[in-house]
Amino acid sequence: MKILVILFAIFIVASLFSALFFLIRDKGQGERTVRALTVRVALSVVLFALLMLSYHFGIITGRL
């Protein structure tokens, strides 16, 4: 489970940096920035839902 969360976090950060790259390269006129940010938001929502479902089904616990 830890590896999956770390992978999601890496993909979210990579999507954020790709949006920054497209923003600088396209000077704010392209749709690639919006698409990259949409992917970032979608990945964040999926990660949140995955964590909540994992907690609900007992895969992860609230204890350290």
Question: Can you give me a brief rundown of this structure?
Answer:
The protein is mainly alpha-helical and 64 residues long. The chain has helices at residues 2-26, 32-56. The protein starts with a helix and ends in an 8-residue tail after the last helix.
Describe the structure.
It is a single chain. By secondary structure, this protein is an all-alpha fold. Helices cover 78% and strands 0% of the residues. α1 (2-26) packs antiparallel against α2 (32-56). The chain is elongated and about 45 Å long. The two termini are 14 Å apart. The model has no long low-confidence stretch (mean pLDDT 92).
Q: How many strand elements?
A: 0
Shape: elongated
Distance between the termini: 14 Å
Biggest sheet, in brief? none
Tell me the structural class: mainly alpha
Poorly predicted runs of 5 or more residues:
none
- The topology string of helices and strands comes to HH
